[in-house]
Amino acid sequence: MADVAVATHAPAEHAGDDGHGHGASTGISNTKLAMWLFLGSECLLFGGLISTYLLYKNRIAEGSIGPKDVFDIPFTSASSFVLLMSSLTMVLALSAIQRGDERANRVWLLTTAVLGSIFIGGQIYEFTGFYREGLGYTTNIFGSAFYTLTGFHGVHVSIGIIMLMSLFVRSYRGHLHQAQAETVEIIGLYWHFVDVVWIVIFTIVYLIP
Amino acid sequence: MAIIEQPLAIGTGRAPEVRSPLGVFARPTAKGGWRSWVTTVDHKKIGIMYGAAGLVFFLVGGIEALLIRIQLARPDGSLLSAETYNQIYTMHGVTMIFLVAMPLGAAFSNYFIPLQVGARDVAFPRLNAFSFWCFLVGGLFLSSSWIFGGGADGGWFAYAPNTGVAYSPGHGMDFYALGLQITGIASLVGAINLITTVLNMRTKGMSLMRMPVLTWMLLVTQFLLLFAIPVITVALFLLTFDRRFGANFFRVEAGADPLLWQHLFWIFGHPEVYVLVLPAFGIVSEIIPTFSRKPIFGYSFMVGSGIAIGFMGWGVWAHHMFVSGIGPLSVTAFSLSTMFIAVPTGVKILNWLATMWGGRLRFEVPMLYAIAVPAMFTIGGLSGVTHSVSPADTQQTDTYYIVAHFHYVVFGGIIMAFYGGFYFWWPKIFGYKLDSKLGKVNFWLQLIGMNMTFGPMHILGLQGMSRRIDHYSPGFGFEFWNLIVSIGAFIIALSVASFLVNVVLSTVRYKRGLIPPAGPDPWDARSLEWMTASPVPEHNFDEEIEVRGLDEFWHRKYGYDKDHKVVRIATGEEVAHKGDNKNVHLPSPSYWPLVVALGLPLIGYGLIFNLLLTIPGAILLLGGVYGWVMEPPDDPNKAHGHDDHDDPSPGLALASVGAEEVGNG
Amino acid sequence: MKRISSPHTGSIGAFRRGPRRALALVGTLGVSAFVTSCASGAELDTMKPKGPTADDLHNLIVPVFIVAGVVLALVIGGTILMIRKFGVKEYTEVDFPEQIHGNTRLEIGWTIVPAMILAVVAVFTVSVLQTQNKYHKDQALSVVVVGQQWWWEYRYYDGGFDPAKNYDLGIDVRLNEIQNHKGKTEKHPVIVTATQLVVPVGTEIDLYITSRDVNHSHWIPALNGKRDAIPGRIQPWKIEADDPGVYFGQCTEFCGLSHSRMRMQVVAMTDADFQTWWAQQKAPATATTPEGQAWLDQQKAITAGTFNSKVDPSKVLAAPTASAADRGMAIFRGQCTRCHLATGINEDIYTGEAQQVSKAAPNLTHFSSRTTYAGGIFNLYNPDGTVNRPQLEAWLRNPPKEKPAYAVGERGMPNLQLSEPQINDLVEYLLSTGTKPAAEIITKTEVE
Amino acid sequence: MSTVSETHDVSPAASGDAHAGAHDHPSDLKYVKIAIILAVLTAAEVSTYTFDITGGLLVAILIPMMIVKFAIVAGYFMHLKFDSKMFTTMFVAGLTFAVSVYCVLLTIFEFW
Amino acid sequence: MLTTSFKLYFGMAVGALVAAVTFGYTTGGNNTGPLSLGWKGAVGNQTGYLILIGVAMTCGFLGLLFVSFRDADPTAAAAALGVDQPPAQLPTQPSYWPLIAMFGVAALALGLVLSSAIFLVGVGLLTVVAIEWAMQAWADRATGDPQTNRELRDRVMHPIEVPVVAALAIAAVPLGASRVLLSSSRIGAVWVASVIAAVVLGVAVLVALKPRISKNIVATIVLFGGLAFIAAGVTAAVIGERDFEHHGGTEHPAEGK
Ligand code: HEA
Ligand code: HEA
Ligand code: CUA
Ligand SMILES: [Cu+2]
Question: Which residues of E touch B662 (CB under 8 A)?
Fold first, then answer.
């Protein structure tokens, strides 16, 4: 494994000022590498939940409530769009802070959080609707698997929203500057991952019956 | 008891000079005493704590093993009721694997990875501390099941539906599921930390192929953990939701398939055993060259085979399910893949032997262990290969033949390697050698005891003795060998006792000045951790080491003359750093990792007993994380450099944000 | 390569003093190990195959053991060789061995050679795997094996059972609607027995193994490997015995409290004996005296509604009192029907929903035709052919004391608080339910 | 580790624009265009719902689209395309293990 | 070392405790019930026992409180610190917590009469007030420097405040949105979600592209948006959910239906 050559940004003496690790042998940032490693492991988490769902979704009794009874594809498509757009706003937030524009950064961070919250609102709506239609968590095996999978995703989104809002609050108080752009980047990575997982869930769970 | 502890100056808007007015909320600065241990972020202290905890749990698991053996020494044993026996053997397995083998591996990882790559600490020191505390509270939580209604009793791999709430109505399995979730977080976080450390914090000139074999093995281990822990996380969540919230994941009446649990568990479970054994392989790869006065034979093959094992380990899990009914096609596939995993492992064994070939072998205590490990592990490995012959496994599985296999690889491969590591690195960690006569007693008792305990288990298994039976009836032919096995177990117990005696005696003697300090390099070793004072000073190395090749330390001591014979250039003492550089800035201690970790078992107890308990747990967790993130990077008075972003928080990385707050130098 | 000193002292010195001695010691141990393992009393021994499949397995694994043994000998021998040849007491300043870093060809060699060895093993493995998983088309003799906490049930069908074509609601754990019964015909067992799987010798018996509650594993070491009993799944397996006899088994998947007490036996008989057994088992049980039979018939008529007890109360027969067995039968009908079925005695009031978590208790129609009971841990008959009454009485008196079961939920047989006269009668009744097995089966059931 | 010197300062030039020069950032407009592409792809995926496609054909259409969307978000929004290969390696490793292991799992369960 | 009021309240606490235990045994307690708060045995008359224990705990708490704050007595504080003069302190800073506390008490009272939801709101408000007011009070007296006090208070409270405030601030959005969606028709919900998202996005683009819009205007927009979510949510909640067709499975009718 060859060491990756990356342009250094500052004189060797302080090759760590811009958030990169000390004497980083690969020249990449510690925290960013850590986040990517974490996202790699999250693939296995969601993979397991998705596999469980796929295995169980059709193992319900003849008359029991199933996917085709409850899914509302038009609505889920709309909320997928919302989440997708939130990824765009996230990356706009990052690019803003990277060029030092703290105001735009705040605008886009807040927008991302709000769009994500709309997505969560949509999930709450969907789940409540399914529940009223008779699909509870313990109703059957499809219910358990479905709610667990989408619930885990929703919790991930919610945690992301809280982190985004925390960033927003810090920025509002004047503590989030261009030098801390990497922090925004890392939370952005998490957010995009959550979106990417939704891309997979939406296709496999909703669109492919 | 007053909250106001000191007179405070009336200032003019700047943070006061004195540290303590911020009271308990400043970065702790304790240098010694229990506080320095509780707030430490030093990888060495954390490594020592992992080791100590692992050893204590080893005694716990060992006592559980001895109870098993007393029960099984005679037919129709009546020491333990069936209910108690099931709890004892389950907790023995769980304790030994999760609370002994993994933390002991973590102990070596934590202590030696930074040293062997020439770094000052790991990439995320507070995260490192959090890993340890998380593991400790998880282990205590799991063990607390004994007082809260009985230990887990479903076997260490907890097959559903037996572990569902219908068939295991007590709390034991809840403690199992939640406790392992907590320790799983510790391992995952530690893996991220150590991978980043190895990749990013190697010293100058240390390319990946110049790292010691131990570091390589530990790196592969961390990757295995990184990817395997999420899978058991899923499995444990599904089990917890079934048990606590009435989900249907393992309710066959609702259409569930019990094999789902088996698959999810073993997808984690098989990489897990390689997680356990690779550190041991690494340790042996360090000891044998040192005491053979030769470099490791075939470094690239050693590294490559470790990586190969890491990869191939993912494709063999269903060899634990040969009789579960996965279908002949799957059985064939997994049978073949399992057989071939013997190939890279064999390379390692043979390379170790080849390292010894032509060397000058000195039989110090670590070397005794390091020599025993290939032999004992091979016994276990070969019985493993016999398991991979799946038709034969239909006779062997769930008998003591399997117990024999894995105890040979685990005890002979892992525990003995760890003991070798203890003896080898004790002088480096604590400054003095453990007594070698007692060490030899320890070794021989252990070797004889182990073979006496686990050898006959092969016979018992082939004679048909099933696993997990709380008693066996007379007349089946199990009496004789069970008695031998039980006697052997007590011989191992004696060996463990001798180790403890050795530790105590040697420490006492050292404190009284009866044994000399070991110096930086008592064994004439090869890798970087020996290149600094013993015990290792807090800052590790006095100055950055520039590495020009594998076994850098060795090459600074020895060179070649014109006849290509080895000649000494310098002594170990001369090359090793003195450890007296006081100007190296160190990551500051912190108590937030402990605070965050404490939230987890509260949530656990809450989920089991009363949901209201989860609220303080969640507050500790949430508040702890934010407190961690917003913690000032350092003592506000001490001048510091650009170390603010050394200690980012778990995932939030706002430390640099927090750093701006309090007076930056 | 000079040895600096040749110490024959110290712990490692033992190996040098007498490598022959060490080898001799090890060899003796190994031989004695094998010898002792051949001792009698090895009913569950996997190395004594008594059926063709077990034979195949044995023939596969012995060479593998030998190969493994050779490899082990090489490794241990190599280790001892290293110790002997290259050990030194002390290092001198200048004594360094040649600093060999590796030998790529050698390493490739010992990568390839084990791979080849394993490839050969693999070929044999796959071939035996095929045979182990091949089943006869002839389903005439297929038995459904059902495991539950903590005993085994065996169900025989006329014409055999094929999960691809038949279903049996009595073994369905999953919601009946989930199970895909489309295109399958329902089948009822003609013989339901427990703990002892009776088979004719020399015939391959197809087993379909499932469970009613948790995972179990069905294993008769002398005849074949084991196969897990997983609820919701019906797994095919097979068994064949070469000679008549009793072959012991043990549940080998942890299934809860009394996993150690979940045993079974395969009783292999000649064809003729098997036919006799079949006929005996198929026949429903009857009362021992005409008085009892009349009472029984009337009870059944009451259940069926063909006899109305209110019309003429004087015609209602009293429960039999003369014969102890019949008294026991009446008690049985009253107390045991909520769990046990005995065809001919209480099939009219038995609902098929035993009040057990697993919904089943052993079928007692011909209880005394079996030599072991309660999960195969108790022998019904002494070696000399007499009945082991005390044990049976103890069982009825307080089953949880004899065999641990959970206090929570109906698992295992509960303590029914029977009085001594009741127990006595029940024992008589149980002993009258079936034909006593052949003497040699009784003796072979003894474990010793 | 080198001993710490006191004379450091975080020069603004060391990050920000100099960053932009060393790394290749897409511009904001480019990001918006990428988002539009993603939206179009999603619309295409959703449109399959209106047509009556089932089974293998549906899978053959949707899965590649899903993979493309995944790659676009990972490559551009998550910046993998422009960053050190190490990140891609780590993430792809996890992804590969996940996909392989779970596909094998589903195969054993005869899911397909 | 121990202040006067501590001694008083501690004494009262001990007295109440003894009374409680005696009361417990004399009214029919057994085993160690009265001693173990009813864990291992009965406590006799539960009401009386509860009252006495409650008194004991309250007095104990007050005692601890007073000893921590040295009875708010300067001489005692100085004695504890071992100095002649107690440290200077600024007068107490203005605070709006008492006002919020008033709302909390009102909600509590109203809730007892009207609905449990309002009661819970009151409880929540009072909990928040208790914590925040107490922290402010402590911080006010920590040093004589308001800036330091503020930093101290922030250091302690931010780990909880930041995530909680962030969560609460944004909570209006999912809750409001989901209520509105639940009242809409099936197709209406799709439109509602899309429109809300489009509006949010549109506003964001506008604000981002026009850096000259002042901070106050932006803050007003945000606040207005938040209020809109809350208002819409409350309205929709009052209107109620649309009818969901039950498809079999478990019965989960909407509340109030
Ligand atoms: C340290 C942990 C560890 C290690 C390293 C291994 C290594 C191996 N294991 Fe083991 N295993 C366990 C721990 C471990 N195992 C545990 C804990 C269980 C039981 C879990 C439970 O049920 O509770 C288990 C169970 C287990 C089973 C399931 C048995 C059953 O339940 O039915 C199987 C089946 O294939 C198996 C196989 C193997 C193989 C082929 C190897 C190989 O990696 C071994 C390779 C090594 C060698 C082969 C020796 C050295 C090689 C040479 C000298 C070269 C020449 C060799 C040849 C030519 C063959 N193991
Ligand atoms: C790291 C793994 C590890 C280790 C080291 C061991 C060590 C031992 N194991 Fe264990 N074992 C497992 C992992 C391990 N085991 C697992 C995973 C299972 C399967 C569980 C399952 O089926 O679910 C198992 C199961 C298992 C069984 C089968 C139980 C059954 O199937 O019913 C048995 C039976 O003998 C056994 C025995 C032993 C013995 C005698 C030791 C000995 O090596 C122990 C050594 C003894 C000591 C260490 C004692 C020292 C203590 C003192 C001297 C105390 C006094 C001192 C003080 C208090 C100061 N083990
Ligand atoms: Cu049935 Cu073990
Ligand atoms: Cu394995």
Answer: 151
